[in-house]
Amino acid sequence: MTSFWMDGKLVNGAGKPVDEDGQVIVENKPANTEVDGLKQQIGALQSQLDELRTELQDQSSRATTQVLATVQERDAALQERDALQADLDSKRAEWEQERTKLQADFDSKSAAWETERAALAADSLAREDALHTRVAELEGQLQASQDQGNPDSPDTRTNAELKAALDAKQVSYPANANKAALQALAAEHGA
User: Fold this and answer.
1) 99 contacts: CB under 8 Å, gap ≥ 6
2) Which of 40, 104, 168, 180 could form a disulfide with 152 if both were Cys (CB 3.0 to 4.6 A apart)?
3) Which comes out higher in pLDDT, residue 145 or 54?
4) pTM above 0.70, yes or no
5) What is the DSSP string of 116-178?
6) Domains of the chain: which residue ranges?
């Protein structure tokens, strides 16, 4: 192999120092214990760093998993709350609609009942007035008949019986009324 001089040294084509015969000169370097110790310390620190990095990655992964689980749980709770709220709002709307319907029905029926009650009261008053008018007419007819001296056949009932028959119709009538007038009154009012 060709050798040549470079930087005051005889080297071969690979740039390694050689002797005059072209043999590569092997340099015996003294052992440096301080450097080796530093290398060992660096290796140990590198191992610790790798362990810490691995542990940190594991903790980060566990924390991420826990956070994701918490987020999913929170989302599920929020969804359930929203569903319950929506159901409550729907039922509240239904209840309000039903309440409004029932209130309107009650108001309508109350108005109808009040109208019917007023009509019945008016009819009752009209019937009572008509009855009093008819009784007054009969009393007048009886009085006129008695004044003319033409009484009908006498009534065989006692005054108490006549009064009871008239009280049943809630009208007043003379106790000495004749039988024909009482029979006419009874026939007209179903006594």
Assistant:
1) none
2) 180
3) 54
4) no
5) HHHHHHHHHHHHHHHHHHHHHHHHHHHHHHHHTT---SPP-S-HHHHHHHHHTTT----TT--
6) 51-189
